[in-house]
Amino acid sequence: MECDRILLNSVNSTLRYNMGKVVFALLLVLLLSSFIVPAVLAVVVLPGSIVLGVVGLFFAVALFFVLMYGFVVLLLKLYRKEPAVLGHVFAGFWNFKRVFPAAAVFSVALVIIAFVVAGCGLTLYFQFVDVPTGSLEIMLTSVMPVIPILTAVFALLFLLGIVLQGIFIFFTINDYPEYSFRVAVAKAFALRRGKTFRLLGFLLRTGGIWLIAAVISFVIVSVGSVVITPRLVASMQDTAAVLLALMQICNAVQFVGTYMTLIRMITGAAAFYNALQNSPETDQPQLSAAEPHQSMLPPPDES
After folding, report:
1. Rounded Cα–Cα distance for residues 88 and 15 (Å)
2. 210: closest CA among 248, 266, 156, 164?
3. pTM of the model
4. pLDDT digits (tens, 9 = 90+) for 92-115
5. Which of 40, 85, 290, 296 could bond 60 through an S-S bridge, CB–CB 3.0 to 4.6 Å?
6. Of 219, 220, 303, 207, the residue nearest 259 (C-alpha)
7. Long-range contacts of 234-238 (CB under 8 A, 24+ apart)
8. Nearest-CA neighbor of 245 among 263, 220, 274, 270?
9. Would you give the DSSP letter of residue 78?
10. Taking the CB of residue 173, how many other CB atoms lie within 10 A of it?
């Protein structure tokens, strides 16, 4: 397998020549998600059923991951210098029967982790902090200091506990259309096995300065949201105005840094996966005779 520096250079080269297309594709995913997710939730929540609301929440988040599958496939093709167009963002819907189970797993994990972290975190916070009762606005203001901590805990648990473990699943689903979903997942885990820490280190290096900028700006915005209170704004208007301006700048840096980190890390994962695929050390799992084929694409032309 190639060394990390060579892989990092290949990631930089890929994004240098394709950044416009990648950014536009990510904006397309985010735009579609901003319409699809609320639309699904509105349809299932209107009847007023709690069960339908929960199911709708899982399904809406799963559709977001179906779109993310297309974005991942686009980055993989760009890295391999294969033909890649914005239409690949919809690849998850072309291969819905095999992609949706993986998207559903990520969706269930995300929602469960979010509820557990929020529930446990707020419960502990209320036990140790005297939260004033009254209007909803007062209660929300009182829990603001703990929100950034809960957000960070949720992100770490989901990214390290779920995404990092199944990071190659979307790649193997795309590369092995003849494999069933179960075999494609097994292949993804087999590729990652024994290389998790090296992969994590490489992804952190790939995030680079953008990851650092996103983390620092997140900390500044989190602290600022606690420090800049309505009382401070009223008593020290000039100071508060400067702090609010700094907060706006940090919000912009956090936004750009977060999505640039996402782009670079997914491309880094594609590079690492591709290197493992081409490594002579990697064992290629074989399909058993009893394993049903679920090919969604025509066989390659061997002529």
Report:
1. 17
2. 266
3. 0.84
4. 999 999 999 999 999 999 999 999
5. 40
6. 207
7. none
8. 220
9. H
10. 26
Contact 277, 40 (CB under 8 A): no
DSSP string over 98-121: HHHHHHHHHHHHHHHHHHHHHHHH
Mapped onto helix, strand or coil, the DSSP state of residue 263 is: helix
DSSP 8-state assignment for residue 179: S
For residues 221 and 254, the answer to whether their CB atoms sit within 8 Å is: yes
**What is the SS3 assignment for 66?**
helix
pLDDT of residue 265: 97
- Give 123 or 228, the one with higher predicted confidence: 123
Cα distances from 80 to residues 106, 239, 274, in angstroms, run 26, 51, 8
Classify 53 as helix, strand or coil: helix
Q: Distance between CA atoms of 158 and 113, rounded to whole angstroms?
A: 7
| Residues 118 and 185: beta-carbon distance below 8 Å | no
